[in-house]
Amino acid sequence: MNITMMYRGIFAALMAVLLVACNGAGRDEPGGGTVGGGEGRVFVIEPGVNATADMVEAMVQVKPKDVIEFAEGYFELATGLQISSTENILVRGQGMDKTVLSFKNSGSQEGFLASTVRGITVEDLTVLDTPGDAFKLQGVDHGTLRRVRALWSSGRNTDEEDTITADNYSEKMNIACTDPARHNPANPNPLETDTTSPDYTVSVASGRYGIYPVNSQNILVEYSESVGASDAGIYVGQTDNAIIRNSRAAFNVFGFEIENVRGGEYVDNLAECNTGGFLVYDLDGLTRYGQRTRMYRNHARNNNTYNFAEPGSIVSNVPRGVGMITLAYDKIDVFDNVFENHGTAGIVHTSYEVLGVPGDRRLDLYTEGVHIWGNTFRDNGNDLPQPDLATILASGGSQVTSAFPMIVGLKNLTGGAGYRGGHIIWDGYLDDLSDCPYPTDDQGQPIPQDEDGKPIQGNQYPNPECRYNAYKFDDQGERIKPKWWSSCIDGDNEFADDSLTYANFHGLDGLEVLLGLDLGNPANLIAAVLDNVASLPNFPSDTDMSPHDCVAEYGENLPPLDPIVIPPFVPSGTIDPAPGDELVKQLCEATVAAGQINAAAYEVNCPTLDQYHLFSDPQDPMSLPNGRGVPFVLNSKLFSDFSTKYRVAYIPEGQKALYRDGQDNINATILFPVGTILAKTFSFADEDAQTEVAAETRLLIKRKTSGGQVYWDGLEYIWSEENGQRVAHLAQGGGSVAVSWDYTDVHSGVRHTGSTDSYLLPNANQCLTCHANDDAETGAAPIGPKPRNLNLPFSSESPLAHGVDAHPVAGQNQLMYWCQNGLMGNCPELVLNPVTGYVTSVERNPIFNVPGDSGHPANSDEDIEARVRSYLEVNCAHCHNPRGMAQNTGFYMDVFRPVNDTYGICKGPTATGSDGRGGHEYDIVPGSAADSIVPFRLGFEADKLTEKMPPLARSVVDEEAFELITRWINDVVDETYPNADACSSGGGGIFGR
User: Fold this and answer.
1) What radius of gyration do the chain's Cα atoms show?
2) What is the rounded CA–CA span in Å between residue 186 and residue 455?
3) N or C: which end of the chain has fewer CB within 10 A?
């Protein structure tokens, strides 16, 4: 070998280790059917200035069997295309090269988002330059993405961007893979000159995922492509039954990912010029863990692009030049694939012992049951990358993942195989039998298990004290082989002799000796390495592959896995067509007695708000409500740019809502009868001028289909002045408006003054983003009216007087009033504290900005934490719960949950992207808000769309909440909290956590 290159490699590896010590740890036409279309309406969208408005109008009207069709051409779209809470929909263009939807100036993170949909197909178009994900499917059953492309312009959001535009898109959308940039141009290493590619310039500022189905089932991705994602190109996660076939991923960090999937299949795909080609793994801290994936007839070639992910993110740990990685995922068939021209390895088979052991003990750290046969391996492991010093320095020495290939090279060198990687490399780690008991649920009952006796784990169960693994061993304590052995590598694989065939590099064993080397005499460095490590038992690699010849060693092979089958889609037929104009006119223009609401009109969407007759003054939604309307407030409210809220519940005559608490279902609100209308008006006050102007009124209406299906519809009404009158028009397409405020908070006494030019008026489908949990009632189900949020006397949020203040509920505990006045049944015994006005016999969330409102001494640790948790639940938990839009994050914020890893303590993010992390590694770092992601995303530094949380209805910062959360993390959360040690330990692996 080239002795100079060997010297450079060893020196670079040692530098990385010392930094840690110093800083602290062409394709056939598709088959199969298409969901959607055939008998419904066709909404045609043409390019031009009206394209966004036409698209939004179509997406909020779309019903089963409808088609949204984009014409040929280049579209500049100001918001994402979102389909929610429906079924049997087709979205189509005229071809990947003919219909291009550009989102470079979009106010939405995603280009296309389908959430809580049964049956949707998207085909024949390209999504370009999204701020976040290009195609995202969340909670979808039967989703197909066919002949679609996710693409970011070369050098996206950098000075070198070569922007794809209406004038050049026909020439710039087909990206070749000839010569990837192998080295980070930010690296301070003059020896690394291969920092550019003639084909494409990658960027950390590109969107996160190209094609991203998650928390779904029965997913098919075919004849599709992703180019330029700063995380994964084509990904399926936390899903049952997923097939990815005949697709291409290029110039992404990872080309293809299967994560926490139960039943996955990669077939006939091409991964080229990514950092890594294919990944099959389980990520910790999630609701589910996966197994059983088949990978066959794929081609992984030249995946040698330097890792351009944000330092500290999970994907930033991927070493450059890998065809496939397996990690902590059982039962993988790998056959009839080609792995060629990878600098580090064709296949890396590793565990969390190298990656960094997470605090989630429900996760099995090891991959077992991998069966590798009939594959072709050529030129793998012959260009080991040097450590990425730029990333090491940027992370303060905490992330030295890029030293991994060098360590493999050193171990192979001392094992006599030369300084290189190989076709297949394995870290050699497997667990020993533990005496850990079988895991139990929060009632102490054994959790379910699969046919092999393996617990069906997930973060819905308590984190056990240890990792149970008895299912891997027989009655004598011997490992069951080959079933729970790492891998069977059959003799029919074709291994080119241009590379090392196989190495067990023994993980990190023996690495500690490198820290003791004297770098004072570089001329003797290589000899020092060899003298010090060659004699260590597990430092040199073992290149004997015979333990993986399962037939010879164990008398049998692993049986082939069954193919993945997606069952046919069957429409539910429970969603009615849109009502006709005549019915709308009849109901909305009906004559109504004075003081009563137009109750019958609940069935339809009236063109103007006054047609429902909800308010005594039709021009003023802050006036006294008509009929049985009862105003209500929440203990802590959802922050929306310092708007004051006016909420009213209209429960139908002769009916009652039903009391439900959160013990059985954390998302459960009071159960309202069909015909209920919940109105919420957002207003902006000027206390000095004694004025308050309503910007919007949102309605949630509980309806029932002709087939008996109960569901909630969300309606958006925007206020304006016409001919001297105030009127609110139905505006399901949403919009934005400039607003200002100047008023004193009625709870804290803090004066809030400010303005924004971008107050969001959401479209109907954006409402569903927050309101459509899959354990709540169908549609835009209510979020706020839970008993724990209503347990206080009614008083308006506004310091200004309005007609609503004259309602009899004023000054009365709201739960008591509803129960005593026939508005709510199923009420428990209510015991009122006459001093506070709170019911003491039921749960209650405190007002977040009133010290002592929790019942604990004001500003005590317990009081601060209770108030923080109340705020985070109201503002975050509607998505961040095991059944919400953010369920895939594994980060949940309901008030019933212990403050542990699932509440963010030392938990790394799963899908924030580089912007959403803000350079931080964990959601909540005990004692350091400055190092925590949560306050970053809520605070002043997060000024990009992809950084802010919540992602909707917040353009400014809630200063009181930010200060309280910062104080909680800095002064209350400490090393005694569960999982707190995971921040400082880094997980114990070279990859860090």
Assistant:
1) 30
2) 45
3) N
